[in-house]
Fold:
Amino acid sequence: MNTNSFKYYVFYDLETTGINPAFDQILQFAAIKTDLNLNIIEEYEYNLKLRQDVIPQPGALIVNRLNINKVMKGEKEYEAVKKMHAVLSAPDTINLGYNTISFDDEFMRFAYDRNLLNPYSNQNNQANCARMDVMPVTILYFLYQKNALRWPENNGRPNLKLENLNELNGLAKGMAHDALVDVKATIELAKRLRESNTAMWNYLCEGFDKNVDLNRINSLDKVTLLDGLECELGIFIRNRFGYKNNCMSLCAKVLYQEDMSRSFWLRLDTKDFKSINLQEILSELQKSTVNRKIGVPDFILPIKDKYNVSSEKKKELFESNLNWMKSNPQYIEALKDRLLNKTYESIDIDSDAALYSRGSLYFDKDKKKACQDFHKIDDLELKNSFVESIPFDDVKEIAVRIMGRNYYSSLSTRVKDRFHDYMQSINEGNHFDFRGGKRNTIEKSLNDIRARLEDVSKLESDQVEILESFEKYLLEKD
Structure:
C-alpha cells in the first residue's frame, strides 16, 4: 500500500492461552505507535485476567512464561479489548507485527466479535486503517537481500522465528515471547530491512494493498488452455512451503472468486501429474491447490530467473506439469468446478466461533445499533436490563457472556441463569468452532501437564513451577 496516505504504524503482539482464536483468550497485549519513519510515539501494554470459561494450553503458558498466579490478575477482557480496539482502529494507522495476519489479527477479530465490536475495524477504509505483516516481508529479504541480516539456522535449516532473528541480530533486549519485547524486536527488524533496501521495502509494503496486489497478479505471464480459460503463472511465497523449498512453489492460478477476494493456485512443482491415475487426478489436483486472500501476502512473484531459486528438479517438474495442463485442459476446468462447488460438513458452531458462519453482527444495521447501545451503558444494573431486552438472540447470547465473564457478581437473576446454562454447556463439551474443534478441557490440560512433568530435563525450573502451579489451579477448579 502507499504508506504516504497514512500517518502512523502500530506494531503489536499478543500472548495467548493457546492457538484457537475462537476459544482461547488474549493474556497480554503490547503495542508501540510510531511515525512512518519508525520513530516511537507511544507504548501500550495490557495484561488480561484469565476468564473462568477458558482453560489454557500448558504449552502456551510455558512458552509465554506466564505463571497461573500472574494470569489470575489483570484487566477484565471486555474492558481491555475495548482499549485494544481504540489503539488498533485509530484513524490513519497501519497495524502490523510479526506473523500478525496469520495469527494475531485473527485473535483480535474474534476478541472483537465476542465483545460486540466491529471485528474488521483494523482494516477499515473509512477510518483509513490498514494492516501489514513483517514476517512475509522478512522471507523475501531472506531470499533476495541476504546482506540485510544474519539469518538463523536450526539443524542446518533456516529458521526465521522472531526469537531466533532477535537472538542472532540483537534486535531487542528481554525475554522472547514477552509481548512488548517482541514488538520492540519487530520495529528494529523493520528498520534494518528498510535501511538495507528501501525500494524493496516500499514495493513489498504496496503489496498489502488489494488493488495493487490484484493488478500485479493480473499482469503475470499467462498460459491459455481453452477459450475463456487462462491461468496466471507465478512464484507463490509462503513459509509453510518449507525452507528446504526456499518457501516457494511454482504455481498456476486456476480460479479467482471476486466475491470472497481469494484466488486458488495449483502447485506445479510437487507431483508429477502425468503419472497419476486419471481416476484419481481430480482429487490429487485439489490436494495440490492452495488458496490465497487478495492483499494478504504471502507474495506472488513473476516466474523469472532472478526470482526463481527453486531446485532444478522442481523447475523441470513445473515445465512438465505445465505441458500436461496444456494437453489436458478439461481437468483444469473440472478442478475449477470442484473448487467452486465444494461443500462443507454442517457443524453446530458456538456463538464465540460463529463470526465466519453468521457474518459480523455489524453488517446488520439494527444489530449494530444494539451493540453500540450496549457499550454506551456504564451502570451495570441498567446494562443487565438492556441485555434482557435485546430482541436479537445472537446479540443477546454474546451480551450475556460478556456480562457473566466480566461482571458476574453484578448479574441479574435472568442473566445469571442464562450464563449458568452456557457454563454448563461447556462442561458437557457441546461447543465447536468453525473448523470443528472443541474448547480445551481440564482433563486435557491435566494430562498434558503430567506428560510434560514426567521428563523435566526438557524444561527450565520456572517452566516446571508454571506447570505445577497450573496443575494445582486445575485440580482446585475441578
